[in-house]
Amino acid sequence: VTLISLLDALPLYWMISGSFKSALAFNAIPPQIIPNAPILLNWKQLLDGQTAVPSEVWRWLLNSGIVSCVTVLISASVSCLMGYAFARKQFGGRRVLFLLVMATMMMPIQVIIVPLFILVRYLHLYNTYAGLIMPLVVSPLGIVLMRQFLVRLPVDLFDAGKVDGCSEWGQFWRIAMPLAKPAIAAVAIFTFFSAWNNFMWQLAVESSTSMMTLPVGVASLAFGASTGGVNYGVLMAGGTFGAVPMVLFFVAFQRYFVKGIVTGAVKG
Amino acid sequence: LAGYAFLAPGYVLFLIFVLLPVVATVYYSFTTVRVLAGTWIGLQNYVTIFSDAGIRTAFENTLIYVLLIVPTGLLLALILSFLLHPLSQRVQSFFRAVLYLPSVIGAVVMSIAWIWIYDPIVGPLTYIAHKLGVQNPPVWLGTTTTALPAVALVVLTFTIGQLVIILLAALGQVPEELREAAALDGAGAFQTATRVTLPFIRPVIAFAAAIQTIQVFQLWEVIYILTNGGPNNATTSVVYGIYQQAFQYSNEGVAAAMGVVLLVMTALAVALQFRLWRED
Q1: Distances B200 to A124, B28, B221 between C-alpha atoms, Å
Q2: What is the value of ipTM here, to two decimals?
Q3: Which uninterrupted H or E stretch holds B39?
Q4: Which helix (H) or strand (E) holds B31?
Q5: Which of A116, A234, B36, B239 is the 20 to 30 Å CA partner of A85?
Q6: Does position B155 have pLDDT exceeding 50, yes or no?
Q7: pLDDT confidence band for B72 (50 / 70 / 90)
Q8: A262–B169: do the CB atoms touch at under 8 Å?
Q9: Residue A253: which of A150, A154, A184 has the closest Cα?
Q10: How near does any CA of chain B get to the CA of A152, in Å?
């Protein structure tokens, strides 16, 4: 087990240690497992943007942060509101409307990327934050998860609320939402994660270097490299830089990650 | 009535950004796309899908990827979970985190690490091959026979973690009495595992297989970064093909038709998953 786990994490170590290697050390045979003479040049070039391809890593980080945070804010609100309506309200067409959401739950975004792209260009949102964000703000999976959670809350709670004079909004905001905090956290984390890593859409909508999100930017370093000589040092530093935010995010919310994956599988 | 008020804002967004594009994809798949409305060309895009060698390869490769990655991933994950399960909670969660880390970091960054590992001259893999006595190790990503397995290996590294998490959780739900009863009846550890535990968690295994299959259907970042679909289309996939048709060749109609087929493939996998689920 230890061996396989280590093998699985090895590429990561390799990338990080590589980011401290000089061009000479990269060509060394045998490969240096720990860089003999670690250098900071790669990092300096990457962070100052003195690379063969334009690099604006801080800007990319900021872009990814903005896109993912705004997506989460809107998406979580939408999931809560819609999940609440589907779970606790009676209205005509509820079943059909919910089925439509369910049906698109597992659909990959690549299926609808052509019309989305045309739509975003038509709305003049190409190469803008809004264009990056809008197609991602509705998460069918988030809606379904919220609905499944809210439907299990006891009716008595809401009846008691009504007796005490709670408005419709009050029932949602004061009764349902505080109880749903763990579900909201799970949905928010999962949405953040998928917004951050939605590579094809980001790649399609971003055209200028300064609008790139972190994964797209880091990948662009690889492409500049593949045409000329490969500067592995800078590339590995870029990869490491791209990995850091998600690792921190994972460490902070590890509990929810595991719970999120498991609830789908074991409870069914 | 309040129901509609809670539903409406989100549903409008859902209609615009999910449902409408689905309908549009189906429509576009029968047209050549110019600006907003396309020109109707009937089934021609679908004919292209099946007659264009490159696109056909994309579909074939995707199936090969599934056949290569899903069984290997499941088998490895099963072994890992069985070995991890008896260990203490703390040890379990440590290994779970290590194994899940690559998928947190994401396909893009992981692929970047592998660019160097697969480098035919200075890459560590070539060095290891030399050490093992291989005279002329292949250019891993540049040879038609090795490129696809090489890509599959990368995918395996960042999908195995979630399988282990799912299977570990399932093992935790197997009643202890079941195993004890088997032991009393004289079953060895291996027999207990194959005769008692495995059948018990079978639906979860099916679920894990379905999840991974759907993930492999969407495989493309690794290809985009490592191989560009080459050499000679050896590593291309359906989604990579969609990307090429839509954003490199301006064949939006063909891309839409491929999207429709991908949608059907995903739906079939989901349906299969539900069926296996219900059997127990």
Answers
A1: 54, 46, 36
A2: 0.82
A3: strand B38-40
A4: strand B31-33
A5: A116
A6: yes
A7: very high
A8: yes
A9: A184
A10: 18
Write the pLDDT tens digit of every residue in B256-276.
Answer: 899 899 989 888 887 877 676
Residues in A closer than 8 angstroms to B116, CB to CB, are 14-15, 18, 26, 232, 235-236
Q: How confident is the model at residue A73 (pLDDT cuts 50, 70, 90)?
A: very high
Rounded to the nearest 5 percent, the helix, strand and coil shares of chain A are: 75, 0, 25
DSSP A32: P
Q: Measure the CA angle with vertex A39, ends A34 and A45; round to 5°.
A: 130
Q: Is A202 helix (H, G, I), strand (E, B) or coil?
A: helix
Residue in B48, B11, B16 with CA at minimum distance from that of residue B30: B48
What does the alpha-carbon distance between residue B262 and residue B1 come to, in Å, rounded to a whole number? 38
- Provide CB contacts within 8 A for A89, sequence distance 6+: B2, B3, B6, B7
Per the DSSP assignment, residues forming a β-bridge with A256 are none
Whether B112 and A238 lie within 8 Å, measured CB to CB: yes
> pTM for the full model?
0.85
Assess contact for A22 and A242: CB atoms under 8 A: no
Integer CA distances (angstroms), B154 to A81, B70, B214, in order: 39, 13, 17
Length of chain B: 280
User: What does DSSP assign to residue B51?
Assistant: H
Residue pair B111/B154 in contact by the 8 Å Cβ criterion: yes
Map residue B258 onto helix, strand or coil: helix
pLDDT at A6: 72
Nearest to A108 among B3, B162, B262 (CB): B262
State the DSSP code for A92.
T
| Residue labelled with tokens 């599988």 | A265
pLDDT in the model for residue B184: 77
Residues B277, B82: Cα–Cα separation, whole Å: 22
Nearest to A265 among B36, B208, B221 (CB): B208
Contacts of B106 in chain A (CB under 8 A): 196-197, 199, 215, 242, 246
> Is A110 in contact with B218 (Cβ distance < 8 A)?
yes
User: In whole angstroms, what is the distance from residue B174 CA to residue A180 CA?
Assistant: 29
Whether omega before A38 lies within 30 degrees of 0, making that bond cis, reads no
- Asked if B235 and B223 touch (Cβ cutoff 8 Å), the reply is yes
Contact A79, A87 (CB under 8 A): no
Smallest CA–CA distance, residue B85 to chain A, in Å, is 11
The Cα-based distances of A37 to A16, A21, A25, A43, B271 in angstroms read 14, 7, 8, 15, 56
B112–A219 C-beta distance less than 8 A? yes
Selecting from A6, A84, A247 the residue whose C-beta is nearest the C-beta of B105 gives A247
Mean pLDDT value across residues B109-124: 81
C-alpha atoms less than 13 angstroms from C-alpha of B242 in its C-beta half-sphere: 31
